[in-house]
Design brief:
Family: Belongs to the aldehyde dehydrogenase family.
GO molecular function, one term: aldehyde dehydrogenase [NAD(P)+] activity
Strand order of the largest sheet: 16-17-18-15-14-19-20
Oligomer: single chain
Keywords: Oxidoreductase
Pfam families: Aldedh
Shape: globular
Bound molecules: NADPH dihydro-nicotinamide-adenine-dinucleotide phosphate
Protein name: Aldehyde dehydrogenase
Helix content: 25-40%
Number of strands: 22
């Protein structure tokens, strides 16, 4: 049987012990993988191994799918009322709340996000998501559609079946909650793969799923690598739907595997290169604060990070000076350090990747206005907040998703020009407009090709408000009732109550 890992956090912020089962979670119990191999989980702050977890394989995906199919047919799906499914989700949310500090500490240890952020926002928001969808579970229904007096016509919104889900490392618990809650509320059963870089919070929550008494097999977690477990899920013939979050590159592979296997239903939440547009009439101090939050929150490892900042010429110098001063104030370091705002990038590979982008910016002639370096020890995963100026639209740092604390600040003159520049990207995840002119806010907001547009704010999300991408940022929506639509099959029922066939 897989081990239990216990870690005592010896910090002023959380001086307690956390306990995690490190096996795969299949059919309601923690089990060893069929190959009995393990994956080391590395602390991104120190580079040291935190623990080892069981490594799943394609055969473990088969076991998990079998358990999920059985649960779907016997103890979930159409076999239990929506209200009952909601009660299980409410119970899970309550148990998570009781362990909030422990889950937050695990998340910060594993992912490097500051403990103040995981405790203050990530975990509470994830719990809120589960409660939000618990409330939906008994409100998912079809329509009665008037046709003529001789017929009764109505639709049923039926669960799809076994759902495969693949999530990344940048916001592990939030991604986990965002994926499982609507799928379970709608009556599906799940096989989910967390990133092998950050599996710990999902495994901790699995113990709470057990405690909440979910029927075995409703939720299965198979930790493993993308090219084994991820591709086994996307190409599995008995998985009815796949929901993926990660890079656009991998999203293409998942879509290809889905189409080459059983043409499973698919939703994708992919990358972004989101423009943040600040007009002359904006409240500059507020724009600076939101812009900092927009790009530097969570080390810039956010799909909707506001990485391209367009500032109108009349306030460009003032904005840049204040944005620079504010960015310098961020405390970088140990996620458990008092006042830490920015922790480490997730891994040395990802740190090298971000540093490679910074080098490409320099090589292509952009100016490093701030940062551009590693912070602290030579080989640590910390990168100073970075601001580039003197860019041109074709540069890699203007076009590609960096997924680190790197911004470009670009001067613009007129509205039509900035709309054109903002839309000049393969992505369309999010955008923001800062202005005091309400007509300008609407006009620009409507012209931007993005799934979310913020006006005079950034990074605002709500469990009830849809989120997702235009263009190559994805297919489908997370959050709100929109997410539920991706987890049901709509069946039309035609009942003949009076028509005779002659
Ligand atoms: P990936 O897209 O490679 O990984 C996301 C998930 O997909 C992981 O669980 C990964 O597993 C899995 N995966 C990898 N290959 C396959 C495959 N062939 N079939 C099925 N699943 C697979 O993102 P990375 O973690 O490598 O990050 C790279 C870049 O992706 C980032 O720099 C960023 O640009 C972008 N990204 C975007 C995110 C977003 O929210 N939009 C989130 C994370 C990353 P494994 O862990 O083994 O790779």
């Amino acid at each position: 049987m897989p081990a239990t890992f216990s870690h005592h956090f010896d910090t002023p912020l959380y001086n307690e012990k956390a306990t995690i089962q490190t096996g795969l979670f299949i059919n309601g119990v923690f089990v060893d993988g069929v190959n009995h191999s393990t994956i080391d989980v590395i602390n991104p702050s120190t580079g040291k191994t935190i623990t080892s977890v069981s490594e799943g394989t394609a055969k473990d995906v088969d076991r998990a799918v079998e358990a999920a199919r059985n649960a779907f047919n016997t103890s979930w799906g159409l076999k239990v009322p929506g209200a009952t499914r909601g009660q299980f989700l409410y119970k899970l949310a309550t148990l998570m709340e009781e362990s909030l500090d422990e889950i937050a500490a695990i998340e910060s240890l594993d992912n490097g996000t500051a403990f103040g952020v995981t405790k203050g926002w990530v975990v509470p928001f994830s719990i809120g998501l589960i409660r939000y969808y618990a409330g939906w579970a008994d409100k998912i229904s079809g329509q009665v559609i008037e046709t003529d007096e001789g017929r009764l016509t109505y639709t049923r919104h039926e669960p799809i079946g076994v759902v495969g889900q693949i999530i990344p490392w940048n916001a592990p618990l939030l991604m986990f909650a965002m994926k499982i809650a609507p799928a379970l509320a709608a009556g599906n059963t799940i096989v989910i793969k967390p990133s092998e870089l950050t599996p710990l919070s999902a495994l901790r929550v699995c113990s709470l799923v057990q405690e909440a008494g979910f029927p075995p097999g409703v939720l299965n977690v198979v930790v493993g690598y993308g090219n084994t477990v991820g591709s086994a899920i996307s190409s599995h013939m008995d998985i009815d739907k796949i929901a993926f979050t990660g890079s656009t590159l991998t999203g293409r592979k998942v879509m290809e595997a889905a189409s080459k296997s059983n043409l499973k239903n698919i939703t994708l939440e992919l990358g972004g290169k989101s423009p943040n547009i600040i007009f002359n009439d904006a409240d500059v101090d507020q724009a600076v604060n939101w812009a900092c939050h927009g790009i530097f929150f969570a080390q810039g490892q956010i799909c909707f990070a506001g990485s391209r900042i367009y500032v109108q010429s009349g306030i460009y110098d003032e904005f840049l000076a204040k944005f620079t001063a504010r960015s310098k104030m961020h405390k970088i370091g140990d996620p458990f350090g008092a006042d830490s705002y920015q922790g480490p990038q997730i891994s040395s590979t990802q740190t090298e990747r971000v540093m490679g982008y910074i080098k490409s910016g320099v090589d292509q002639g952009a100016k490093v206005h701030l940062g551009g370096q590693r912070h602290g020890e030579q080989n640590g995963n910390f990168i100073t907040p970075t601001i580039f100026t003197n860019t041109t639209p074709d540069m890699k740092i203007v076009q590609e998703e960096i997924f680190g604390p790197v911004s470009v600040v670009i001067k613009f003159e007129d509205r039509q020009d900035v709309i054109q520049q903002a839309n000049d990207t393969i992505y369309g995840l999010a955008a923001a407009v800062f202005t005091q002119n309400i007509s300008q806010a609407f006009e620009v907001g409507h012209a931007l090709k993005a799934g979310t547009v913020w006006v005079n704010c950034y990074n605002e999300v709500s469990a009830a408000v849809p989120f997702g991408g235009f263009k190559q940022s994805g297919i489908g929506r997370e959050y709100g009732s929109y997410a539920l639509e991706h987890y049901v099959n709509v069946k039309a029922m035609h009942i003949n109550i009076g028509h005779k066939m002659e």
